[in-house]
Every structure is written in C-alpha cells, then in structure tokens.
Amino acid sequence: MHSTMSLLRALVGTLRSARHAPRLAAGLVPDDDVLLDAPDGRLAPALVAAALGDQEPAAKLLATTRDAGEWEDRDRYVIRLAAFAQHRGDWLTRWLSDAPGDPDALLVTAQLSVRRAWESPARAERLRELAPLVQDLAGEAPHDPVPWRLALDHARGAHAEPAVFESLWEQAVRRSPHHYGCHVAALKYLSAQWYGSHRAAFDFAEQAADDAAPDSLVRALPVRAAHDGLRMPPGPEGPVPAGRVDRAVVRALVLSASFPPGDPWPAEVRNLLAHVLVERENWAEAWEEFGRIGPYATSFPWSAARDSAPEDPLLRFLAARDRVRGELARRTPLRGPGPGTAGRGGPGGH
Question: Distance from the CA of 231 to the CA of which of 96, 290, 300, 341 falls in 20 to 30 A?
C-alpha cells in the first residue's frame, strides 16, 4: 500500500509539473537573456575602453564619483575595474605611468594587489607586505570611505587584532556612516568563519539595519549574516537561530520589494536573498524573488554554492531558478489556479 501511494504521489507531481512549469517559465526572463555581473550604464563604457587599452573613461568615471561623493558607486567600480585589470592590466599600467600620483589609479592598483594577495597560498604574509600601501592610501583619503573598506578587507586577511580592526572601522564610518561595503567587511570579520560568532554577526547586522535608511542596502545586512551562518557547521553556540533567519528574510523581502523589478542596483542583495530562500525551501517567495531579479545574476552568492552544483555561477543561478520553478509547479493543484495568479501577483509583484 505504501509503495502504491508513493507512486501515486510521484505521478500527480509529474502531472502538476507538466501543467504549470511552462506557465512559470513564461513569467521569467529566458535563460539566454540572463547576464552575470552586468555592468551598469556608467561602468560599461569604461570597461569597453579598458579592453581597448584606453584608461581615460575609467579615470574620468572614478574622478566623478570622488568629486560627487558617490561612495557606493565608487566602491563597486573600483572592485570591478580591479577584477578586470587582473587579466587585462595594460591600461592600468599605462594609467599609472601617465599619472603616477592619481589617487584613483592608486586605489584600483591597491584593490588589485589585495585581491591577488587574498588568492595566494601565503595570504597573510602577502597581505602584511601590502600594509604600508593600504595604510598610506587610506590616510590620504579625508572623505573617501572606499580605501578604508579596502583596509578592513586587508586587516581581516592579515589577522589584525580586534582593537586594530575597530580603529579602522571608526575611521571608515566617520567618512560614511552607512556605507554598504564597509559594513559587509565588518560583518565578515565578526562572522563565525573568522573572528566572531553567529551571535556577534547578527547583533551587528541587525543594529546596522535598524539605523539605516529605508532604501539602504545595509537593511539587507542580516540576510547576509544568515547566509554566512547557514553555511557554517554549528559551533559551540549551536546552529544559527531560525527566528533570526526568519526576521532577516522578512527585512530583505521588504527592501527588495521597494525597488522596481529588474533594477540592477539591488541585484546582489536580491540574488543573496533568493539563495537563502532556496536553501530554506521557501519556493513561492524564491520564485517571486527570481522574478524581481530579472536578467541580473551576480557571482556572489552563486560562486559559493554547494559542491554538487555546476561550477559556473551563472549555471548555478539558472539551475536554482529551474529547481524553484519545478518545485513550485509540483506543489500547485492540478485544478487550482496556476502559480502566480493569486497573492502578490507573480514575479516582480509587490
């Protein structure tokens, strides 16, 4: 009898998937139209020019962000330009040669150097060798928090003592109290994976989210703590409390819904939220979040997915999205309304 019921459930699930999966697929951006780490309209021309060996658009872009105090954009652009220079660095070399004291060229170079040190087997030693460069760059930035975010990342890998890290943090928030990149750097330091604990990470993330503006990405910091905590084995304090994860998810859902569907600005936060929802098997909310993401997949968190997943983060994103579609279709009654016809209105509904 038990085997008969199991077979019946499997057959019904297959029928439901056959009926509802195509309808779900029609509500999402097609696989071929999904982009990984797509640059925004300001960064894209600078990357194209850099690929042709021309540093001028990148120099003008970073100078604009520095002069206008666009610290969040500046941080993103520095990270992306350094990542590009890791494999195509001739334009950066020319930039430094033409303008050896340019603070933006030096910042991208320092970001690249720290990135390479992090990837080295001798990470801590390599990072300590870079300490004078990072310290000088931060010390010469009276208003810019980005060199201090870099200093925070550097300090974590160099095994800086808590007092040293705290002094860097004070300098960073003095320049920009709610800078997302600096908050992420501090959260990593406080995580159980590094020098803190699940409790310390959540306490910090929740307090920062409480203090941030309603549309600030810092509001999603608790879901970042949840993601990091869920990937760690239970420590002396036990597993990540489910209640804190629930609250983090709710905060992030509210933040995501405040932006238009397909907006590239909150793309990484939305990808992170979708990843956590899939891990927790919250299929309906994950499906809606994939709808809000639109074509903007991001390497993080999919590059840190489980070992059984495809290696390419874009393939991991598409596989997770396909899994959600299948699970949701399988759970939708055969004679009931199709997924997305009730509640918040399907992908992108608020």
Answer: 290
Q: Is 297 helix (H, G, I), strand (E, B) or coil?
A: strand
> Pick from 75, 278, 86: which is nearest to 185 by CA?
75
| pLDDT value, residue 8 | 46
Q: Are 208 and 218 in contact (CB under 8 A)?
A: yes
Instruction: Tell the residue number behind the tokens 């300090």, with chain if given.
Output: 155
* CA–CA dist 304, 227 (Å, integer): 11
List 36's β-bridge partners, or say none.
297
Q: In which residue are the tokens 């928030």 written?
A: 173
C-alpha 306/C-alpha 231 separation (Å) is 9
Q: Could you say which residues of the chain have pLDDT below 50?
A: 7-8, 10-21, 341-350
- Gap between the Cα atoms of 32 and 48, Å rounded: 22
Is residue 151 exposed (0-12), middle (13-18) or buried (19+ Cβ within 10 Å)? Answer: buried
- Give the closest residue to 145 by CA, choosing from 209, 78, 59, 228: 78
- Kindly list the distances between the CA atom of residue 305 and the CA atoms of 162, 253, 260, in Å, as whole numbers in the listed order: 29, 21, 27
Considering only CA atoms, which of 179, 104, 175 is closest in space to residue 144?
175
Q: Could you tell me which of 138, 223, 128 has the C-alpha nearest to residue 184? A: 223
- Long-range interactions of 8-15: CB distance < 8 A, separation 24+: 12/334, 13/330, 14/330, 15/334
Contact 292, 262 (CB under 8 A): yes
C-alpha–C-alpha distance, residues 177 and 251, integer Å = 20
Tokens of 46: 């600078």
Output the six-digit token pair for 33: 């139209």
Helix H or strand E segment including 35 = strand 35-36
Q: How far is CA 50 from CA 55, 56, 67, 84, 180, in A?
A: 6, 8, 22, 9, 27
| d(C-alpha 152, C-alpha 165), whole Å | 7
